[in-house]
Amino acid sequence: MNAFLIYVTPVVAFIFFLNFIGILRDVKDGEKETTVQVLLGSFMFAFLVFALVLAGISNTIKTVERFPQFLLC
């Protein structure tokens, strides 16, 4: 799972950035049909937040496993 996040998250972040630029360009030009782009952007944002939370939880679990047990009292 961590390998998946390591390789996929930067790609999703790059696509998210390009999609955001595209939405800004469409709004500037006056195009009103950005519903699909906004929906795609919201899914990518949710994935990025999920990846960050999962990475934090994973790191916390590994830290607790290495922590000396006598200090956890």
Written overview of the protein:
By secondary structure, this protein is mainly α. The protein contains 2 helices and no strands. The radius of gyration is 19 Å and the shape is elongated.
Mean pLDDT: 82
For the secondary structure, the number of strands is 0
> What's the Cα radius of gyration?
19 Å
Which sequence of SSEs, written as H and E, runs from N to C? HH
Beta-strand level of the residues, as a percent range?
under 5%
Q: Characterize the largest beta sheet: strand count, sense, and whether it forms a barrel.
A: none
How large is the count of helical segments?
2
Tell me the helix content: over 70%
Shape assignment = elongated
Structural class: mainly alpha
Distance between the termini: 31 Å
Question: Low-confidence parts lasting 5 or more residues at pLDDT below 50?
Answer: none
Question: Could you give a short description of this structure?
Answer:
Helices cover 82% and strands 0% of the residues.
How are the SSEs ordered, and which strands pair?
Layout lengths: L1 H28 L5 H32 L7
Helix pairs in contact: 1-2
Keywords:
mainly alpha; 2 helices; about 70 residues
